[in-house]
What we know:
two-stranded antiparallel sheet; 12 helices
Amino acid sequence: MTAPTDAALRGRQLLLDNFDFYGPKCLKIRDKDGNIVPFVLNTAQKIALAIMEHQKATEGYIRVIILKGRQQGLSTLINGYLYRETSMRKGKKTIVVAHKAESTETLFQMTHRYHANIPEAIRAKTKYSGKKLLSFDRLDSSYLVVTAGGDGIARGETLQGGHLSEVAFWPKSTAAENFNGLMKSFPPKPGVVLAIESTANGVSGVFADQWRQAVAGNTDFVPIFIPWYVTQEYTAKVPDDFVLTAEELDLMARYGTYKMPDGTEIPGFCTKGQAQWRRKEIGTNGAEKFKQEYPFHPEEAFLTTGSPVFHAERIADM
């Protein structure tokens, strides 16, 4: 076997050190129009990646919990990041836990697409490639996708990579047991990557509890909130007679700009097109559902149930 050149080694290290570079050079994704295109990070993905990389630089590992709006590409980012770590480093054992069988298949198809389209020069040789498992021969690394709901997921394992997807929607009967068991499998050691992500689903449950604990600083998970309005495609054509309401003007005053992790300010909720898109979503699914799936701030994502004594929206605003 020919030894790699210095230039090849430097190129490999650049791919390992810079996911912004690795993504578009090495990974292909299916966009929302059905096209297979290079993975260029969107704004939501850049926000999450910057926080993840900062924790890695300061702590040596990544442990994040992400509260997001719908279809912002966070699963794509996390799976791409974990695929790179597992297919380019030795001895990495990665698990992805989806909330239902359909999502399990979707997430593994995404990973297979990464592997099928990666440049030949850096494609890891597979020992086994099945419906839920990729095993990389010479690296002694593996990438497994499973569905939440079974008993004892990864019990007794020591894992170096994990993506716990849509945790708020895991089956209630086994969610706490599976989550607690998985936490014992991920030691907070250098090189370990663990990302929990979900849209909200009520005020209680594993995800809501873990989010609040992270925000309070009671765990080593870094909380990441991704507001819906940083996703540029969430806009609609505005009719000629469109007039902003007092509520919309107030929201624009509060959320008109967004500060990126590096301090740079970008446009937030600030256009009539965004307001029109929001009106249509609320008209279709209702205001409470919109707040849960497309929150302006974390507190309004966790909807109350029943008939609370105090006005939930006022409390959230405060």
